[in-house]
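YM 10:42: Choline dehydrogenase sequence, as discussed on the call
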Amino acid sequence: MTKEYDYIIVGAGTAGCVLANRLSANPQTEVLLLEAGDKDNYFWIDIPVGYLYTIGNTRTDWCYQTEPDPGLNGRTIGYARGKVLGGCSSINAMIYMRGQKSDYDHWADLGNRGWSWDEVLPIFKKSEDYQHGAGTFHGSGGELRVEERRVNWEILDAWREAAEQSGIPKIAEFNRGDNFGNAYFQMNQRRGKRWSATKAYLRPVANRPNLTVLTQAHVERIEFSNNTGQLQATGIHARVGNDPSHLFHAHQEVLLAAGAIGSPQILQLSGIGSGKLLQEKEITVRAELAGVGENLHDHLQVRSVYEVKNTVTLNQRANSLFGKLAMGAEYLFFKSGPLTMPPSQLGAFAKSDPDQPSANIEWHVQPLSLDKFGDPLHTFNAITPSVCNLRPSSRGHVRIKTSNAEDYPAISLNYLSTSEDETVAVRGLQFTRKIMAAEALEQFKPKELKPGSDIQTDEQLLSAARDLGTTIFHPVGTCKMGNDNMAVVNDRLQVHGIKNLRVIDASVMPRITSGNTNAPTVMIAEKGAEFILKSRKEN
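YM 10:58: structure's back
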């Protein structure tokens, strides 16, 4: 069964929703958007604190598991990826974080034209609807709503003071290019509700007759032709619901927007990648691109936990019936309070050592504590300052295990596999202790529970980092942009050596941005749409 479209977009996550909106704006252009997950009509998606019920839930999450990681003392960790319209933007932390000027200037220094900070800032502003209006660094009237927090905690205000006393100044906000300082995060919310890519980009155009959205559409492989002497993407094979495989034909381009795990998996299943890997899985090699699935990296957060006194944190409120009722009522009537909380409200950026060219570590600070994600909150009041390395040098990979599209790939991060990353992890924990010992926090009598005050030497701290470290769910780089022998796409996001095929999502980042990766993914998709429209106009 074959159906005809101009563009086929694989993945209705953040990037896919942006692409569907921009490419279908021309009523003469037929666009197909394929999503392996279901509709985003689950109750807990809209409520910000609902990430507790969407992450790890097979209704909304792929529920991947990483391979046992030597850098985490052999542990396997859950690796959430959105499996629903809106993708990760329907289950993520909602933090709006662009990264730093140096991130994008580095991309440009690698030879990627048009990707410097000065060139991408207008794209960020174009898509933004900033609560405080347009200015030098912000835009208004765009699709992506950005607002301030709607709940306050005494302990977080005190942590800000302590960070300042420790050499990290208070700043008004991040997202201006140099993030050194501490500030409350801004979020993709509208009046206390999650503002996902679906709400921002897809729902407003869902009734366009030239846009077709199919959910429960599991892509099996890309269809190619070689009639012109060059490999050319011509369509997608996908199983929709319980129906047998369909062939959807693309007259113009096939666009992979399935994310840093899904996009390389689909390329490999289609015969694009390492010839050795593909031959092992008995897949015909269509194009040898050694970098497909390689260069995987992520922000590893190391979670310290401190019990505190003389204040109230979410632990106390969530562990009492009255507290739960009060929080529910506040959200129901005012759309404020703890139910509007992202996982972290407060952040700080600093250098792990003076020789760093810019801030290279970041804290996500939470007025709560638990043993691990998904577990109940502790019964005592506590705070969790998690620190992560913004520019990790450790690299992993995504590699298919079989030729079956239903089988999950192997996800190996190889965290803390370089001496540089080991050093930053130790210094991050030491810096956290410095902040927690500052005068501003003395009245709350912080008591270190994790790693524990008995952990003192660098060797002990590194071992603790391996025990405590976990992902912030920021995988990137597996189809990286560039022109070296491990690059998968060029700076127009076209797959090297293959016509009419692009990858447009976080997998194209040559190096991860400083902070949460959703806002940069929106920017990448906006630029990708511009490249596509310009290319079609020229042809």
